[in-house]
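Worked example 2:
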Amino acid sequence: MRAALVIVALTVLALAQQAFASKPGLGPAAMPQATYEEFVAAAKERFPGPFDDAAFRRDHLVSDWKAMRTSEVIASDLTYKVDGLSITGVVVRPRAGKRLPILIWARGGVGEARIDPPQLVEMGWWARHGYLVIASNYRGAGGSEGKDEFGGADVNDLVALVAIARKYRQVDVRRIYGVGFSRGGMMLLRAAAFGLPVRALATAGAPTDLASWIGERPDVDALLRRMAPDYEPERRSGYCRRSATCWAERLAVPVYLAHGGDDRSVPPSQAVLLSKRLEQLGRPHRLSILDGADHGISGRRMQFFEEVHRFFSTAR
């Protein structure tokens, strides 16, 4: 299985050399509110649960929102082909600058989740710190064709972003990094282990050992049964295709594992398990359990970004 996954990843990198479409101007269009206060109010209206206003403001800075509104940071819609499917995404980059490192952004969420304005503002933070950020909505979401497989063939949607990012003249093709949230972290780990040429990566709230996660949350098994075309072989293998603890020896690049200490969706033990495995293997990594933080590390995302930015700088 591992050899097959390597072949798939490298094949996708080659196939992604085909044409893609990028439509500039998404930033201001995605920030239609005239003021930052209106942006916060709009986010509150869309948020499905209790909204922590102070935490949201710490995670989405006025300066980054203004950069999107004024086009100091340029955001573009992206459409590209993977496995014969049209996949949507975004590119966020500074207006000026050369030799930018590439940041692969792997969003969290399942089903119809997509990259939203608050995430664009967060990507703007990275662009203002000198990165070209590129992200996928994944198949089955955000206008993309296909079906969300929760870390199955949709991993190819991440891998294909590398070839697209390399086409931008302002990038340094030797410096590629990745940051992933929740299921996006799970997908990013798998992509890095089987062919994604990143120098370092970081995850927040990522499931890394699905067998133990399902032991604590049986509903995750039902979710996989519904979403994963490879559910039966996955179950028989102990969910190893999606579990980094099963192939941690393939993670040869520095890995930053962050997790909310009060995460009720994916327990922090998931990050601890992978950290212990990487420690046994002598792999470079850092574990950061954020006391009291939830699954989305709400109110602590800027802290996470700043620490990861420094972590990446040691791998440049």
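Residues 150 and 223 are 9 Å apart (CA to CA). Residues 1-18 have pLDDT under 50 and may be disordered.
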